[in-house]
Amino acid sequence: xxxxxxxxxxxxxxxxxxxxxxxxxxxxxxxxxxxxxxxxxxxxxxxxxxxxxxxxxxxxxxxxxxxxxxxxxxxxxxxxxxxxxxxxxxxxxxxxxxxxxxxxxxxxxxxxxxxxxxxxxxxxxxxxxxxxxxxxxxxxxxxxxxxxxxxxxxxxxxxxxxxxxxxxxxxxxxxxxxxxxxxxxxxxxxxxxxxxxxxxxxxxxxxxxxxxxxxxxxxxxxxxxxxxxxxxxxxxxxxxxxxxxxxxxxxxxxxxxxxx
Length: 260
Hints:
Blueprint: E1 12-15, H1 19-24, H2 26-38, E2 42-44, H3 54-58, H4 62-76, E3 81-84, H5 87-100, H6 105-114, E4 118-120, H7 121-128, E5 140-144, H8 148-154, H9 158-164, E6 170-172, H10 188-191, H11 193-210, E7 214-217, H12 220-232, E8 239-242, H13 243-248
Parallel strand pairs: 1-2, 1-3, 3-4, 5-6, 5-7, 7-8
Helix pairs in contact: 5-6, 5-8, 7-9, 11-12
């Protein structure tokens, strides 16, 4: 069965890796690359890409965010599509750059042309590439956490679930309040640590209640927050996996254990 749906051969896709993936979990970037190639894309990782500017933007430093956003726009605007394995960074580029460039007609016009071509990874694979198969091989049970930015800014909800359902033998068991925040919120978790901890504790309780072997999600900030709290609470069994890792086949065929 063909893996490709509606994409034209040679579609050029820029993979925006994101800072956290690059620094903390580069295997997620390689998984995203593998999936895009599986979909028939010609994938380019711009070598001089840097931060999307979200930390500065969220902290109120619009000047720094504007400089970074202008740089990202220059790097990405000539590709057919831009794909991001993170709802928060994808939302920053697609949604908030237009606000940053509101007072600059030239940049705003250029960004208006680029914005419709910026996609979160699973949204692109499901709704643009029309992926019919995924390389992933996994057996067991997972639950899915909807990251706030991807859900509320980009409408990412059913796309990752539809792709996960293409893996034979993988059960998706929904947790209570799957759409509720995990408490990370970027700098929120640093400024309001006690509140953030209370929020993530409730999320963890809902994850554990499902009995799933792993929680799967699409944003590394949420991953680090949930996994860190799980381990501090003594849960060394529940895996925390990026959806790209599961879909790309970076798991053993007989269970939800990441390859070394």
